Predict the 3D structure of the following.
Amino acid sequence: MTAIIDYGVGNLFSLEGSLKHIGEECVITADEAVLRRADRIILPGVGAFPDAIKKLENTGLVPVIKELAEIKPIMGICLGMQLLFDVSFEYGTHKGLGLIEGKVVPIESKLTEPLKVPHMGWNSLNIRKTGGILKYVNENEFVYYVHSFCAVDCDDSITATSVYGTDITGSVQKNNVYGTQFHPEKSGETGLKILKAFCEL
Amino acid sequence: MLAKRIIPCLDVRNSKVVKGVNFEGVRDVDDPVSLAKFYNEAGADELVFYDITATHEGRELFTDILKRVAGEIFIPLTVGGGINTLDDFDRVLKSGADKVSVNSGAIKNPALIGEAAKRYGDQCVVLSMDIKRVDGKFTLFSAGGRINTGIDALEWARMGQENGAGELVVNSIDTDGVKKGFDIEMLEEISKRVSIPIIASGGAGCIDDFTRLFNAVPGVDAGLAASIFHFREVSIKDLKKELAKNNISVRI
């Protein structure tokens, strides 16, 4: 069973639907006991970092997530991935969960040409490390992104990138902890393959 | 590389997809859920659903259809039609929409764009505009293209971005349903004034119209059409192949 952490951020309709679609039992929950019972955990997220980390802290689940990350697979999606890092510079400086080394900065600060922000739409994946959640994904398959901030200084953990003026961190992994900047639940068949691989971990 | 998006638009009334010429004389086409599945398999990058019912019962039927689509199709869904309040945003987002398209509702209450952007994020708010040339000026129309608001459409686009819209749908009433190509001139003018993604709508008649669109106005991110896809006049697969051949980045 996969637990999707419910901390009042974002629309979980598609995520729940896509897990059901691939035959995975899932529960949307903020209950510590359910997280402990789950085989794996998804940390979703849409919106701004400061608000999200505050809401996550308010659930009291942060120490539980950190503890469980040692023993079972956890995947952050979009803002949920950004929360996994040490620090974000969205509207000030805010500490993240620190499960993966790196920081979250505005996309603009990385761009060398004037491109639209948010980075929104389908972009192709350049895979750096196969396996894990990318087990069933081929080079150059497209995934759906919507974001204005991106993870940097995390080279050791990057498993795939997409080019948007520069290399944008697409997915990361450190031990049991996985993250995707894109939305697998909105990335068609490719996204479903990523969720399937995660559910097999 | 970021792909240009191809977006079929489904106007839904009384549980059926309909499409008219110049917004009048609508006729039934197909069941929205099966059409949505068909487009997903054909390679559509996103789907836009417009609820063109006006009754409460119609709204509920529409929300049910939306839930069924969102439960089976995992690509971005944009929903518009009858979006006038934050409660309307809430209703469709809870039924599985990823983005909400607001048109007449934003004309009646321009603050709606900013309030929705603040609550749900810019990426969620799509400002849809129906534009027609009146005395040589791009003019904003409301109520499905029936009412001339007298508002300068180019200024409205710029203000929409300033207020927090994350994307623009630019629909040319002059070219809509005519199938002679997108309104390149109008799209160029809008593109000069905003930096958010632009979805071009109105006028697609053949594959070449899309090639011309993306080549002529690099600031356009997506092409939207309805009837040519619904009546199988253009297949999305063939369209994308042709775009790729012309070095336009698409998801294949």
About this structure: The longest helix of chain A spans residues 188-199. The two ends of chain A are 11 Å apart (CA to CA). Chain A touches chain B at residues 11, 13-14, 17-18, 20-21, 46-48, 114, 116-124, 142, 144, 146, 163-164, 185-188, 191-192 (CB under 8 Å). Residues 9 and 52 of chain A are 7 Å apart (CA to CA).
